[in-house]
């Protein structure tokens, strides 16, 4: 089963160590890698192929939640900017990548898409989501999102 489809199903059931919050328009999980601390993925409430497959009300709620996750990252991390991406090139299921960007990143990296970071950042286990290391930030994000999404 596609990883995004599986994550969407788990998050909609309120399951997963990396689940941050269930919002009105989607469910937020921490990304599989955390070399940029706070990297999140917004999943729709139900398995959906593309943004355009959501009805207008669902689409507005999803995109609003995407921006609110960005607010949470700005508030809870030292990020100076947020990158939002909905690509759909490798998974046939809707999901939005929400990347905090940091001033401490090398200048060449700050000017390029996150996807151009070396493969080691995506594949080495030391960068993978780890509850022992990442739960403090995850809990900050959860608390912020609960407060602002009421």
Automatic annotation (TrEMBL):
<dbReference type="InterPro" id="IPR011146">
    <property type="entry name" value="HIT-like"/>
</dbReference>
<protein>
    <recommendedName>
        <fullName>HIT domain-containing protein</fullName>
    </recommendedName>
</protein>
<dbReference type="InterPro" id="IPR036265">
    <property type="entry name" value="HIT-like_sf"/>
</dbReference>
<feature type="domain" description="HIT">
    <location>
        <begin position="6"/>
        <end position="108"/>
    </location>
</feature>
<dbReference type="GO" id="GO:0003824">
    <property type="term" value="F:catalytic activity"/>
</dbReference>
């Amino acid at each position: 089963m596609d990883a995004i489809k599986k994550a969407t199903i788990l998050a909609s059931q309120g399951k997963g160590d990396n689940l941050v919050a269930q919002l009105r328009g989607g469910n937020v999980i921490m990304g599989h890698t955390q070399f940029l601390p706070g990297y999140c993925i917004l999943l729709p409430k139900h398995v959906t192929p593309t943004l355009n497959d959501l009805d207008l009300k669902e689409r507005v709620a999803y995109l609003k939640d995407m921006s609110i996750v960005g607010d949470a990252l700005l508030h809870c991390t030292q990020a100076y900017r947020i990158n939002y991406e909905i690509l759909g090139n490798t998974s046939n299921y809707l999901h939005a990548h929400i990347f905090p960007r940091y001033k401490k990143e090398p200048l060449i990296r700050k000017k390029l898409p996150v996807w151009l970071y070396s493969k080691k950042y995506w594949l080495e286990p030391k960068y993978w989501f780890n509850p022992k290391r990442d739960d403090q930030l995850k809990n900050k994000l959860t608390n912020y999102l609960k407060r602002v999404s009421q």
